[in-house]
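Researcher: Next entry in the queue.
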Amino acid sequence: MLPTLFQIGPIPVRSFGVMVLAGFLLGLAYALRRVRGGWAGRGPGEPGAITREHVFDMSLGGLFVCIVGARLLFIALDWRQFSGRPLDLFKVWSGGISIIGAIIAGSLYLWWYCRRHGLQFLEFADLAAPAFALGYAVGRIGCFLNGCCYGHPCDLPWAVRFPSEAVPGTLTPPSHPAQLYATLMGLAIFGILDRWTRRPRQSGEAFLGFLGLYALYRFIDEIFRKGATAQVLVAGLTHAQVLSLVVLPIVLFLLVRLRRSPRRPQAGEMASTPQR
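Model: Structure for this entry, 276 residues:
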């Protein structure tokens, strides 16, 4: 593992933080490129159009909010780990965040930002969904370098030994590199959402699609982590698996209902419709 990439004087540069930042920048670059010529049928100068300035402004605030939300949920789910060590609450750079918390906090912040600037939340959420998936996929590489979020032992050729959380100072048996599975699945989700947002759709479809795909991926990924870095909550299921089972049917219901409703033409489509 390589939790520290290098030192700048006495300051260690953590691989986890570097990869999270790299994922954020890649996601931001993707979103900026997609809105260059307009988004959701709205040109850059039209009322309610999402501009590159909106994307950049929202992303900076959203990064902070997502990190705080991810850390707070992680702490809430594993409070005993921090009892007697209050300073560890702030050590985000060493790992210990919940992406589910980032999704919840980021979605709430995006809703607030859209209300403040007169933008359509679902249109912006459709843009943010593939960007977030891309950033997430890259950020999970940081988990691998940090040696956290690994899976249970296996005898596969690509198994990796990680620093053990159960017995500090030792290594795990060869185990599933669940972080890299997450990266591959995150890239697959990004590819699906990128293609989805380039086709005619209802506003909000890609966002709901992201929530559904994430819930499905997370349920599968927890199978490899269960008993190692993901603890069973009830009926042989982890916290994330229970939440996935709650979220997935709700998202599928909303998505089917949304797709069955009459699709409203977007601004660019209305402008190009010939008059008769």
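Model: Residues 41 and 184 are 31 Å apart (CA to CA).
Researcher: Noted, moving on.
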